[in-house]
Amino acid sequence: MAKFIKSFGYAFSGIAYAFKSQFNFRFHLAALIIVGLAGWYFHLSKAEWLWIIVSSGIVLLSELFNTAIEVLVDLVSPGIHPQAKIIKDAAAGAVLVAAITSVIIGLIIFIPKIGHAA
Ligand SMILES: Nc1ncnc2c1ncn2[C@@H]1O[C@H](COP(=O)(O)OP(=O)(O)OP(=O)(O)O)[C@@H](O)[C@H]1O
């Protein structure tokens, strides 16, 4: 049981590292809070909340993997290397795909509601 709780501590320290070191992680977290408030304001349905939660989770997940990949690349290849560039660019691309997907989901959910409210 103690080992299980300890592993939570390690996971939270990884999340804390991403939060402290990555502007994008903080930016996405702030966006998530704004979307959450907007969802509360517009009384989203259960299905709409599920889409928001899943897409936000995927964005944060991709940010955490991107952070891990950046640190790993810097560890194994501290100098400039064309393959290090490819690895970091592909990881950043994954974050971008997740972010674009979640923006599209957000637009599909919120545009009709904003139209209604206006
Ligand atoms: N070792 C390297 N060799 C070649 N190109 C690199 C290397 N490290 C970084 N780059 C290039 O610089 C870009 C930015 O890398 P960096 O590690 O600064 O990531 P970042 O997204 O700016 O991270 P952070 O969010 O920590 O500022 C990479 O996407 C890659 O194109």
From TrEMBL:
UniProt-annotated binding residues for a divalent metal cation: E70
Cofactor dependence: Mg(2+)
Domain of life according to the entry: Bacteria
Subcellular localization: Cell membrane
Cofactor-binding details, from the entry: Mn(2+), Zn(2+), Cd(2+) and Co(2+) support activity to lesser extents.
GO cellular component terms attached to this protein's record: plasma membrane
GO molecular function: ATP binding; kinase activity; metal ion binding
Residue ranges of the TM segments: 25-43, 49-69, 90-111
InterPro entries found in the cross-reference section: DAGK, DAGK_sf, UDPK
Residues engaged in binding ATP: Y10, E70, K88, D89
Name assigned to this protein: Diacylglycerol kinase
